[in-house]
Amino acid sequence: QDPTAAHYIFQDDPFLMPRNAANSRLFSLSKESGRNAAKYIIKHFPQYFDKTFAEPNIPCLMPETLTPQIEGLSEEALKERIHLRRVKDSVDLFDQLIQAGTPVSLETTNSLLDLLCFYGDGESTPEKEDLEEPGVNASEQKAPKREFQRGSQPSGSRWRENNNAERIFKIMPERNAHSYCTMIRGMVKHGTSAKAYDMYIGLLNERHKADVHTFNALITAVPYLKERFLERWELAKVFLNHMAQQEVQPNLLTFNALLKTLRRCGGVGRSVALLVIKEMEALDIEPSLATYDHLLFIFYRGADLCPSGIISEVLDDVGKRSFTPQDPDDGMGFNISDNLLCLSLGEKCCDLKDIKLAYRLNKAMEKGDNWKFLDMDRLNAYWSKFFTLLCMMEQIDVVLKWYKEMSSSLFYPTPKNILDLLQALDAANHLEVIPSVWEDMKQLGFNRRQDLLEELLSLMSRERHPDEIQLAFAKCAEEIKAVHEQTRREQSLLEWTGSALGHVALLFSRAGRTQEAWYVNMMEHFQQINRIPTDQVMDEFLNCAKQTNCPDEAIKLVKLAASLGLPSSQRLKNRTEKEFELSEEQK
Questions:
Q1: pLDDT-derived band of residue 143, with 50, 70 and 90 as boundaries?
Q2: How far apart are CA 452 and CA 87, in angstroms?
Q3: Has residue 138 got a pLDDT over 50?
Q4: Among 222, 429, 558, 583, which residue carries the largest CB count within 10 Å?
Q5: How far is C-alpha 361 from the chain's CA centre?
Q6: For residue 245, what is the enclosing H or E element?
Q7: What's the pLDDT tens digit per position in 328-342?
Q8: Is 377 helix (H, G, I), strand (E, B) or coil?
Q9: At a CB cut-off of 8 Å and minimum separation 6, what does 42 contact?
Q10: pLDDT number for residue 224
């Protein structure tokens, strides 16, 4: 892999190579927005895309037909509109058939219910069409905490009272298990869990059996039906017992739904989570990434919890496998849970400050196509946390090796990553690398970050270095001075601080650049912004003036100290008289 190459999604347009994480997010989202815009145009203006002639004609390469071809009132026309996912047109045609006295088969009516329950009475959109599992509500982990209200889910509810799905369900002359299961899954998906539970009771009263997807949806809805942790676990067990009684075989999504519910069961969840995993093993069901993610969340949710061996066991299992998507929470797409396995593990390793654990995680993530489970944002967040841990725990040579290989190819360093790197360089006394870090800061667009500039200048000016390094530091100081002085229409002027001025003056002085140290920084800016230079700045400048044999600059320094009322003015005056050969006029 080329360490200087950007992510593969940017390769086809070099002009749009991102400079930093913000650019990366903007460009990747804009690319996805472009695809959605194209889908929107094709859907709403199909008349401009009906040229399907080709020689030879290859049907699989032709654009999808999005306009209905069957006219008139018939069940076949209704089936076609359902297949094209035209929600409003399908409902209107169904109503017309009922009003005309034309019977609609149970199978077609159930297909219409499937469409309505999936889209929640709204029209289909590209984002909704990409959803994988209607019975799983992905909004739970993103929702803010709020007061418990039975049967209601915090956000994303699109289930209106007496909507088309409920109306059609009520007027159906015959209902089978599929009809009830579809309604239950739709109600859970769109945030009316209490209605879904009532519908399930109706299904039992009619002596129907639910399928595994319906039970998965009901188990997911448990936290919205009961308030107490123990009550939630008891209700989940009721659904599991019903599955056994109805001879419904659980699948991977069943156990993931149960673990997802246990995430919201506090200590009860921690006491039974491992029993759920053992039951999966007994049924020979392999966990997915979402399974491990739920497990980690259950055991590592509170900061006050003592570390357990769970994370090590999870890494042992994950490191042996290359995963494929099996659950919507496994990490595919933009609108999924934020608590992905690799990101969660990265946070845990960082919290535990266990570098060996982090290396094992990284090896597991690079196995096969596991890295594809993290999109651009989450991939950058993972590498950012990994690099932070490296800076805290590893030798500086190892840190710099990783930094060279990771930067701009695997991730874009954040301001915190740069700060961590500077602190690691300071701890290892490798400050000669700072000029190259400054070049990276300019490339990443961090050259106007006040906190980074202060840290950079502080480290460069803290002590004297060999002449070659001092010259490189002075060049960095010159560029930082230019950043403070440049004014662009879209950018505000970067204000000098007293410490930054002092650091720049020190760096110029140590490099023998007396004129710049004086005219550009001290005399003009210290007085303009009403700041007081430190004694170290004054002494270093006087030393520089002595080395370059500039008595005039030394005299200006003494005058500045006197005008600012500095206690060191008399000491500076004595040094100047002693160390310089002054003319009578200068004396």
A1: very low
A2: 54
A3: no
A4: 222
A5: 18
A6: helix 229-245
A7: 887 643 222 333 445
A8: helix
A9: 49, 63, 66
A10: 93
Contacts of residue 380, defined as CB under 8 A and 6 or more positions apart, other chains included, come to 21, 24, 411, 412
pLDDT digits (tens, 9 = 90+) for 242-268: 999 999 999 999 999 999 999 999 889
- Asked if 217 and 135 count as a contact pair (C-beta separation under 8 A), the reply is yes
Give every CB contact of residue 113 below 8 A, 6+ residues apart in sequence. 165, 168, 169, 179, 182, 183, 186
CB 244 within 8 A of CB 209: no
Q: How many helices (H) and strands (E) does the chain have?
A: 28, 0
Q: Is 192 helix (H, G, I), strand (E, B) or coil?
A: strand
Identity of the residue numbered 240: L
Dump the DSSP string for 198-241.
Answer: HHHHHHHHTT----HHHHHHHHHHGGGT-SSHHHHHHHHHHHHH
Residue 137 confidence (pLDDT)? 36
What pLDDT score was predicted for residue 229? 93
| CA–CA dist 233, 52 (Å, integer) | 56
Distances in whole angstroms, Cα of residue 385 to Cα of each of 210, 309, 578, 585: 44, 21, 56, 63
In the block, which residue shows the tokens 């009922």? 98
Instruction: Give 504's pLDDT tier (boundaries 50, 70, 90).
Output: confident
Identify the pLDDT of residue 148: 42
CA dist 188 to 138, 140, 153, 217, 240, Å? 11, 12, 9, 6, 17
Helical pair 193-205 and 177-189, crossing angle rounded to 10 deg: 170
Does residue 303 carry a pLDDT above 80?
no
| Cis peptide bond prior to 56, omega within 30° of 0 | yes
Provide the CA 327 distance to its chain's centre, in angstroms: 19
Going by the DSSP 8-state scheme, the letter that residue 354 receives in this structure is -
> What phi-psi label fits residue 192: left (phi over 0), alpha (psi between -120 and 50 degrees) or beta?
beta
pLDDT score at 494:
80
Estimate the crossing angle of helix 310-318 against helix 289-299, to 10 degrees. 170
Helix (H, G, I), strand (E, B), or coil: what is residue 431? helix
Q: Show the tokens assigned to 138.
A: 């992905």
Cα–Cα distance between 421 and 402 in angstroms, integer? 11
In tens, the pLDDT along 168-215 reads 999 999 999 999 999 999 999 998 999 999 999 999 999 999 999 999
Secondary structure E strands in 302-408: none
Closest CA relative to residue 226, chosen from 137, 294, 157, 151: 151
Give the Cβ contact number of residue 14 at 10 Å.
Answer: 8
Mapped onto helix, strand or coil, the DSSP state of residue 407 is strand
Please give the Cα distance from 323 to 372 (Å, whole number). Answer: 10
The alpha carbon dihedral of 131, 136, 137, 141 has a sign of negative
pLDDT for the residue numbered 145? 37
152: three-class secondary structure by DSSP: strand
